[in-house]
Amino acid sequence: MRFLGQTEMSRQGALERWLGRRTLPAFTLRLNRLGCFPRAGVVWTGPSRVPGALAQLAEEVGLYCASLKLGPPHRAFRPHVTLFRHCAACPLPETEPLVYRPRSLGLYRSVQTEQGPHYEPLHSWPLRA
To answer: At what angle do helices 52-67 and 9-21 cross, to 10 degrees?
Structure first.
């Protein structure tokens, strides 16, 4: 949802406490598109339409991050699930939609390895209907 980059522990803690006090809305993603990030060599699946609850949550998280002076996001919010890494850009086939209902929102640390980034979970919060 949001890449934070190097973040002071006090700001990370403030974000964690803020998320812990909120009721985070549940949502359903209809993953019906395939795409790629050519420079990163990543093939992904994502929704052609972002659910309103997810868009609103992303906006609220963005505003709170701005209040913590974390700076603007380095890219526009584009929900997706990474399928493959180290792929050459190629024509992608049509795909059957997949319905995905996440149960939580997570905070992860990205660690660079020789094989690419590895994501370590730091904290999670449940999504509620």
So the answer is: 140
Q: What is the pLDDT of residues 32-88, one digit of tens each?
A: 999 988 888 889 999 999 999 999 999 999 999 999 998 777 778 889 998 988 887
Q: Which residues pair with 128 in a beta bridge?
A: 25
Mean pLDDT, residues 121-126: 96
Tokens of 52: 């309103």
For residue 59, give the DSSP letter: H
The tokens for 98 are: 């997949």
CB 100 within 8 A of CB 31: yes
| C-beta pairs of 17-24 under 8 Å, 24+ apart in sequence | 18/64, 19/61, 19/105, 19/107, 19/123, 19/125, 20/125, 22/60, 22/125, 23/128, 24/57, 24/105, 24/125, 24/126, 24/127, 24/128
pTM above threshold 0.70 = yes
